[in-house]
Amino acid sequence: MKKLRYIDALRGLAVLGVLVVHCSKAGKSVYPFMVENVLNFGAMGVQLFFVISACTLFLSAHKRSKEELHPKTNFFIRRFFRIAPLYYLAIIYYLWQNGTAPNYWTGYEKEVSGWMVGANFFFLHGLNPYSVNSLVPGGWSISAEMLFYCLVPLLAARIRDLNAAILFLAGCLVFKTGFDLLLTTKPLIANVDLWNSFLYFSLPSQLPVFALGFILYFLVFVPEGTVAINRKYLLVLAIALMIQLSMGYNVQHIVFAAMAVLLGYALSVADSRILVNRLTVYMGKLSFSMYLIHFAVLYFMEKFGWLEVLPPVSVKNSLVNFVFRMSLLLPLSMIGSSITYYGIELPTQRAGKWLIRKIEGKA
User: Fold this and answer.
1) Chain centroid to CA 92
2) Distance between CA atoms of 260 and 63, rounded to whole angstroms?
3) Tell me, what DSSP letter sits at residue 223?
């Protein structure tokens, strides 16, 4: 739909951010502190994905609940055929590329074992620090997303207006506070860095981000004036956020997600040609494939010696190398993703739609 071009554009910007941060980490480049901070900010593209995903899922859930006989069953079929086929292919590919040797995400102590592969297959790898990101690069976000999907039908039935969404966000922040309080100070594994990464990647840490996507849905897709905002709920939300801030826990990704809500709302009112254009919209359509494929592109760029054209001995050379890498990474990722999008994603999504029509008695 043309009116939702900005949604695809936001996905395109999200995957561009992810490519930027991983491109900046490749090679041996050194950057000034401020430049490195800006490049690292691209990692928040994942949170932009989450916000847009939650928003569009609520839009779909509320619409289809009135149109279909089996909306919950159909929801899970759609989600499975949207994510699983390409992710399963990524599991096979990255097992071939990286093998099963120990790596940072296994603590350099454990090999990628059968149970890790099985956990990825069932999208449960986000429940264990040794499997959360050890097989498919960036796979932690896929687990968080799929675990979140399990909650969507229930939440869509309970959260029916903006006030409920605000209260849910406050509840997610309180839950995250308890989660952090319980587990940050008491790591269950010896590798503290890996444990802290696992806590950040986990669904309780990311749930407030998804909750902000619900707020975007009600701001954009529910007619204005249909509900008055309860100021008491805003007070509860403010207190919940202040508690998180005062305890020193990581809320940067939540603050960014709030900014993403503002950006999404602004683009829903008035398009920006700088942000919403053919390139960003097309990248948005390819975003899932690009997210999984760009790691492989970087791998082969390293194999062929394409990460650096100048010795990374100065800031100037490092910036030149970064621009060179991005000039290859972006188009190569888009080419590969176009192949998987049209060759795998769309056909498997059509298979899911056929199965739904069969269940609905329309096939």
Assistant:
1) 21
2) 23
3) P
Determine contact, residues 25/308, Cβ cutoff 8 Å: no
Report the alpha-carbon distance of residue 147 to residue 153 in Å, rounded.
Answer: 12
* N- to C-terminal Cα separation, the chain: 24
Q: What is the CA radius of gyration of the chain?
A: 21
Joined tokens for residue 295: 């790691």
Q: Residue-wise over 142-157: b if at least 16 C-beta within 10 A, else e?
A: bbbbbbbbeebbebbe
Tokens of 304: 């062929």
Residue 226's pLDDT is 66
Closest-CA residue to 142 (of 93, 98, 74, 90): 90
| Separation CA 87–CA 288 (nearest Å) | 9
300-359 residue pLDDT tens:
999 999 999 999 888 899 999 999 999 999 999 999 999 999 999 999 999 999 999 998
Q: Is 225 left (phi over 0), alpha (psi -120 to 50) or beta?
A: left
- pLDDT over threshold 80, residue 224: no
What length does the chain have? Answer: 363
Tokens of 95: 């097992």
Q: Is the Cβ–Cβ distance between 294 and 19 less than 8 Å? A: yes
Angle, vertex CA 216, rays to CA 208 and CA 158, nearest 5: 65
Could you give the 3-state DSSP secondary structure of residue 160?
A: coil
- Report which residue type is found at 293: I
Contacts by 324-331 with C-beta closer than 8 Å and gap 24+? 325/23, 325/26, 325/27, 325/301, 326/19, 326/20, 326/23, 328/297, 328/301, 329/19, 329/23, 329/294, 329/297, 329/298, 329/301, 330/16, 330/19
Neighbour tally for 260: CB within 10 Å: 26
Dihedral class, residue 248 (left if φ above 0, else alpha if ψ from -120 to 50, else beta): left
Q: By the 8 A CB rule, do 161 and 218 touch?
A: yes
pLDDT tens by residue, 77-88: 999 999 999 999
Q: Dihedral of CA 305/310/311/315: which sign?
A: negative
For 229-294, list the strands marked E by DSSP: none
Please name the amino acid found at residue 120.
N
> CB 339: neighbour CB atoms within 10 A?
13
